[in-house]
Amino acid sequence: MTASPVDAKTLRSDARRNRERLVASARELFAEAGVDVPVEEITHRAGLGMGTLYRHFPTKEELIDAVLEDAFGVLVELAEQAAAEEDAWAGLVGFLEQALALHAANRGLKDVVAERGHVGRRVQAMRARMQPLLRRVIERAQEQGSLRADFTAEDLPLVLWTGGRVIETTGGVGTRDQHWRETT
Q: What's the rounded Cα separation, in Å, for the pair 109 and 74?
């Protein structure tokens, strides 16, 4: 994938404000409704036109990557913390709890992490950094005897997806953040 032709640091001030409005609008909508929100809704909320959107973000994947970049960084930090934990089981559980809390707060993040088809460069970079860390946490937890031997790193997306389904299902009932904690 080619990088976006627009570098946010070199934009005129009005173009930078427009870009910031698009990102803020998309961030709110993705968190509320997920990444399937139509781009027309994003531009409408930002008060801008489609041409402005596509000048800044030629593809929706580039917009998603830009909007969720901070959240991707947090997920990588969580994986690094899990890998640094002496007790691998505590590291794994801590990663899962915090990742699901992020999912509960940001539906767009949940959509992107769970979906294998999203190929944005930031998502690819996040996965490339997280996978070896989490694989090692799982191996260490197995070596320490706290995780069953047949659990693999490939099972983690299923665990996150399952937690995400609970978050979605209970989203309108009470506090979104608590129901998944009680049922997963």
A: 11
Of the ranges 87-91, 104-108, 159-163, 179-183, the best mean pLDDT one = 87-91
Residue 18 CA to residue 126 CA, distance in Å, equals 27
Residue 124 pLDDT more than 60?
Answer: yes
Q: Shortest CA distance to 162 belongs to which of 116, 107, 100?
A: 100
Q: How many CA atoms lie within 13 A of 161 on its CB side?
A: 8
Residues 78-103 pLDDT 10s? 999 999 999 999 999 999 999 988 88
Per-residue confidence (pLDDT) for residue 82, from 0 to 100? 97
Residues 6 or more apart whose CB falls under 8 angstroms from that of 131 comprise 153
The 10 Å Cβ neighbour count of residue 178 is 12
